[in-house]
Fold each of these.
Amino acid sequence: MKILVTGFDPFGGESVNAASETVRRLPDAIAGAEIIRLEIPTVRYRSLQVIEEAICRHDPDVILSIGQAAGRADITVERIGINVDDYSIPDNEGNQVTDQPVIADGPDAYLVKVPVRAMVERIRSRSIPASISNSAGTFVCNHVIYGVCHLIATKYPGRQSGFLHIPCLPRQALGKGNMPSMSQEMMTEALKAAIEAIAEEKQNF
Amino acid sequence: MKILVTGFDPFGGESVNAASETVRRLPDAIAGAEIIRLEIPTVRYRSLQVIEEAICRHDPDVILSIGQAAGRADITVERIGINVDDYSIPDNEGNQVTDQPVIADGPDAYLVKVPVRAMVERIRSRSIPASISNSAGTFVCNHVIYGVCHLIATKYPGRQSGFLHIPCLPRQALGKGNMPSMSQEMMTEALKAAIEAIAEEKQNF
Amino acid sequence: MKILVTGFDPFGGESVNAASETVRRLPDAIAGAEIIRLEIPTVRYRSLQVIEEAICRHDPDVILSIGQAAGRADITVERIGINVDDYSIPDNEGNQVTDQPVIADGPDAYLVKVPVRAMVERIRSRSIPASISNSAGTFVCNHVIYGVCHLIATKYPGRQSGFLHIPCLPRQALGKGNMPSMSQEMMTEALKAAIEAIAEEKQNF
Amino acid sequence: MKILVTGFDPFGGESVNAASETVRRLPDAIAGAEIIRLEIPTVRYRSLQVIEEAICRHDPDVILSIGQAAGRADITVERIGINVDDYSIPDNEGNQVTDQPVIADGPDAYLVKVPVRAMVERIRSRSIPASISNSAGTFVCNHVIYGVCHLIATKYPGRQSGFLHIPCLPRQALGKGNMPSMSQEMMTEALKAAIEAIAEEKQNF
């Protein structure tokens, strides 16, 4: 089994993105699954193109994307991507759109196919706070959740996709008042735990 | 130089207190200062009696107390203790008082004598979020800040005292939604950094 | 034009629900539209049955449901209902389900058909804070958003539906620390403004 | 009995300050007390000079100051002012100081003399959320609490002073996400209730 794990590059004026920092620390194999690490641009559509190229090249069974959610204190496993692009800040190529669909004529939303609750429980079993999220917002994170589900539904059947939001790193929270953060070690461990839950579920089928 | 470092025992129905967990992990010496670790009860006045006994036994130059502040995301160095006991929950011996002084006829408040800003900066220099807090609330944490300052002002002159609030541990935040937390390693490191800042400042005089 | 406006009855041990309090204060007509006020039970499926009965009896053009969102500070116009019932507390008949669909084999979500952004702007034009929300949670509020959209899609075509979350009333926030609230007058005014935006948009077609 | 009620002018780039808006709406008499309304500048020391001039001119029995606390959801009656000026933004004349005393050689803090708890209870009795606050921060609001207490302690004995923080007005919260606010009517009513509690307590002595 192969799992493609993606992390966004920095955006919003930050020099680091906790997501790509964490993805690059993953080992080559977790629970018997081969791990392919990929940094993707925080850009509307271009993010999806880079993922689609990696799907073609690597033929992964699972695509798991990771994003940073400043202000969240725990690991959140996203349940759904919605057919809405509504950006309150520009993406890394200056796109800032209001109330646009990700895919014209696409369905209103896609519930992800990875085992969301098992992922949360596996992370918590390592004493790391985690919960299910019912909204990934309407910026590029949601764009990728929806867009990858749509790729699978329309062009690459038989695969699963999912999305984890992770907090800021402690160094990103310096001087930002009560901004929550999580240590790099704990975020890497959480991501491994989530991948284990996915790998084991697939191997049980 | 000797530094007495105190941590509260668990309260409010919790089985663990991040403060005592962190204090017990401190080494015997930091930056040339001897460290004396002490767990204190989360009890009005009894907490102060245990600290006073330790002052008599160990003759410390500095008394630094550590408390857990559920809901705070960063290390907060408290600036002041006020002459108010106003407990919204009972302490560990069932004391729940409203609008009472810590010390009848004591001054309204004491600003702590440790170098608050240098402690914050030293913690941040380790990439750990920290800030100054201007209120330790009105429960046993504030009681200890005020009470130890009053002991020093009235009976044990020439010493310094201070107080750090630390977030919950990750395992305490499990299942509590968006409750912030900080890893044990990071909290221990932060406490060491704060003590270094205190020790170096005193050695410069 | 007729608009059916529903408000939930109290739940979670509260004696009042800001939603039903506000709905019952609406006038019989707003911007030329006839207003039909309806209290609905905070109960899985039963809420939808009561709404469907009212659709049959009154033949409304629009169904606008109102719910209370404790902790939110502004009026939020919901954008989407998702096919998930995941209740962290029991509803008013004791139903507490985990990760169940609202409608087995229903689509993953429905974007609402009312003019969400125009509703927000109209409310703000009255100097009342409002924003778009991308998640109504997974309790009975979301159940009603999804369920009513599904009724319209499958049985009652040609209608629109929408959902507003409103904050707690000030008297519900007493003694609850920093819980935000909004005055009754302001919430009633906001609801009228939202309905005007819906009525005017439909009359322009 | 005379009560001087002060409200700050706008600061931080805002065009309105909820405090001065509310103070100017007070009637000339409340519960038998004559009310003197005064706008004061959000400026270090200059704020205190303007208050001292009004004390000399009007000889009030009570000085009650009102400030705006963006982000707080309820009316907070401040318990204490501390001898610290530590401004994270400049005041209206560009003063931005770090860790300075309000009054060199002044006591560390002053607990206010007005009946804080009775004021909170009276406001709540009007179904308006209110609570006691143990920190007014370290900007000009705290400067005024501490400074007026010090004026009374050193030059104008026999008087009382106090401070209320009020939320933003709804129109100040537009487009600021989940920023809490309170209607003008409710804030004016809360301020009247707090003044009644002060007036009645003094008349009982």
Amino acid sequence: MRFHRTVTPLIYYIHMTKSALQIARAAYQPKLPKALQGPVVAKEGAATQSVGDQEKIKQLFPNTYGLPVIEFEASAATTQQPAVNVGVILSGGQAPGGHNVISGLFDGVKSINPASKLYGFILGPGGLVDHNYMELTADIIDEYRNTGGFDIIGSGRTKLEKEEQFEKGIEILRELNIKALVIIGGDDSNTNACVLAEYYAAKKYGVQVIGCPKTIDGDLKNEQIETSFGFDTACKTYSELIGNIQRDCNSARKYWHFIKLMGRSASHIALECALQTQPNICLVSEEVEAKEQSLDDVVNYIATIVAARAAKGDNYGTVLIPEGLIEFIPAIKKLIKELNEVLTDPATGEPREFAGAEEQIAFVESHIAKDNLAVLKSLPEDVARQLCLDRDPHGNVQVSLIETEKLLSRMVAKRLAEWKQAGKYDGKFSTQHHFFGYEGRCAAPSNYDADYCYSLGFNASRLIAAGKTGYMSIIRNTTAPAAEWVAGGVPITMMMNIERRNGADKPVIRKALVELDGAPFRYFAAHRDEWAQATSYVYPGPIQYFGPTEVCDQSTKTLQLEQAR
Amino acid sequence: MRFHRTVTPLIYYIHMTKSALQIARAAYQPKLPKALQGPVVAKEGAATQSVGDQEKIKQLFPNTYGLPVIEFEASAATTQQPAVNVGVILSGGQAPGGHNVISGLFDGVKSINPASKLYGFILGPGGLVDHNYMELTADIIDEYRNTGGFDIIGSGRTKLEKEEQFEKGIEILRELNIKALVIIGGDDSNTNACVLAEYYAAKKYGVQVIGCPKTIDGDLKNEQIETSFGFDTACKTYSELIGNIQRDCNSARKYWHFIKLMGRSASHIALECALQTQPNICLVSEEVEAKEQSLDDVVNYIATIVAARAAKGDNYGTVLIPEGLIEFIPAIKKLIKELNEVLTDPATGEPREFAGAEEQIAFVESHIAKDNLAVLKSLPEDVARQLCLDRDPHGNVQVSLIETEKLLSRMVAKRLAEWKQAGKYDGKFSTQHHFFGYEGRCAAPSNYDADYCYSLGFNASRLIAAGKTGYMSIIRNTTAPAAEWVAGGVPITMMMNIERRNGADKPVIRKALVELDGAPFRYFAAHRDEWAQATSYVYPGPIQYFGPTEVCDQSTKTLQLEQAR
């Protein structure tokens, strides 16, 4: 067995000191949909279409386009199937439940035939290309059941996009006699899984590729996918912390807490946490963009609520802020776009060089459009400097370095000072700041995610046994008890359309942003004014694994509201 | 009933939307020591002495000095006792379990006689002085059983120190016919509780005063007090998050996480979290001070471990940092002391005025001693500026504004860059920063804290019934099952000595710092080199309330190690 020297999961797990919870939790047997509890038969629906650009997608995926939706039903047949070797890859950012997808997949392939083998590629898609892998045996799997993290084989961000990668991959797949590859990832990784499936199908390499929908951000969902795994656990972990802060806030009554939450492209996390905890303020990037709000509008919105609460003597509160907010403000988006342009040398496409910071700032200020300059000048000086100076290796402005929670609280403080001067506000405004992200991505999965992920992995083995490729493993009806969940597969091409990415048209899975006419946002919008004024905090507390079902087995509020439609 | 307009707990609780956990958890009946489960008799020990300065303390507390330690034993007697009205105050920072002290006290005074009444003073000791209170009835108490926060009556930081405050207090105590006051607070609040007890005893006002040991910092403990309440829950909440971050760290393998933990004066929280999670590095302020380490020494210590891990290909890790670290570094302490002096006008004692920032910095640099100037110049420029410029209303340097976690990671990055230049280090050093404090102070109490706090409150009612004053409510033997816990009272004077505070000798309860020859630190010191190198992370997960006893009912590692001595 090959084993890359820089990675030591096998050696590591032997020495792992386990917490009491880990030991107790290892015994949890995740629930499966009834259909998956015995032999299955695949019921096929009609041919499918992509959500957009059908002709183009069809052309790009001649072998994997138009396949039917699959639903598994219990079957009486119990014929022994041949052993099958399967490979698995964790791609991208961590999400609670990844280990359960793998243990479900392991139990699934072993139930097909005990001689089946599961191989894990180490540290993400790069492990396939670099032939860095390990066999996942029962001993290893048992160490990781119902635990958080992706540390069983590690994850990585290498993008599987190029033919040479696919060809390097097939070498090791052939060597290990692997007939199917399961790629656990977000929208981009699943898009690439489909490209790989198409490539191997076109080349008749005889390797199936199956995707699993992962991301705490919650932006990989559509008519076929109810939710991406990890969203439930991550949101519950953040909500525990927000609830604790709110209880502190309501006890001490002297701080405004500005809480930024992970999630660059969509505000699902912030919205779900708001539904769980009922903060005084929650910003939703998609709404800010749709209403074409300026930073000034956002600051005014917050300051108005702070002032209204202060008038009642309540100089405290909570504000939830999605990580990506700043990029959704149209004026800032426009400014960033122009900054990226003027800081790049058009002749070479490389970042421009400057003698020093002041020269760089002077260059920016004399080269950007008047309206963008006005926006730049409206920002606190250090944030403006940061935007002009800090660039990533590609020369782009580093938006993620901006501490939006501090930027907003400082601008609100300034606004309130003006209002105080004008006699329109008479309160105290002391602040605390928080950013939650890494605190939740590797939490031990909630019962929901433990069951959902185990089912996704187990179900993937059934798609493999049914000979499918270019499919995503799908579990639906998850607000019902697990036995009633529906298991099956959806062709990944069905979720695709063509989008402009880095200057080229690409087939991609459409990202799910918060829908302003969707039930979760509408519920929030109908209640937020009351929450702003009345201090309606809810304290969800930590995720529970052993208690009553109404405490331990609930799905997210987002999903409950969406399903109630 | 009087009710201050700016405070609305009564109105608020009626509208409280409860989480599923809160509803389920309300039914939990906290465990009591066996001795408190029925009628008790107070067994008195010999006369006591203060831990230091006996003569001075005795002089200051003629009525409350030298009293015996009390231990309650079960009694056969069941004589009905007269009703007694009791007041309760929450003082200082929030700690998990405050509501359980109050519900235990409520059940205790009602068990003495159902006609007894419990009054809560609103928003801390100020409520006593300002006559701001509410009666705590069964309906209200039931809403808050086993919940986090101090929001039932709020807390505050007004110090009860002056005779005029005591006299204002007695007015309302008489009006409400309150015979005993329970003050729930940290070392300072309990010191003041004793001063108040002494004052009322000397004046023969007939009001008893009882203290309860609260603080998440864990620095209120001694031969009599095993632990302060809230420490257990707060540390478990922080350890949940640290464990989650470590699992992420060990999955992505690309960041060093610098995690600052609340606790200004002592490092108990950081040490306990290290024992629970086994990070790569944990700094302990008391050790830094004892070894007279410089900031440079600390930076070298961290950088050396980073480099050693990098040599094995492990460019990731975790560092726990106690909030108060910077003030424990002797050279920085000395610098801060001199900054405070030179920035104060000796003629007036007021902060000096300057025309602008540059003038202020120039003044500082030309007035402080050479060695302090060297220390100032060794800091990153913005931190040095912050130290010279930002002062609180008393003119003091605002040490708490320094983001120690970022200061350290930046200085480590600089050191590593030097080593790279010198060919002594060849790795990547990317960082993430976290500060945990408000996330844990109002968590719902763990079973340990729920039981411990309920017992402390219930026990306080027994001290009241026994006619005691100037005592602290004490529960011991808490690493054993709750039935075996020992309940009693200790004269607060017994924990006192004389210390210099703000230029005057004062009787105070001695703060408990981490003892470098104590079992918890020794265990840590014996294992830290292994944890630094081998990636021995433990993932404790969230606090559980309903599971197996080894998951739900364990005390802190600190206490277990201390008791095992």
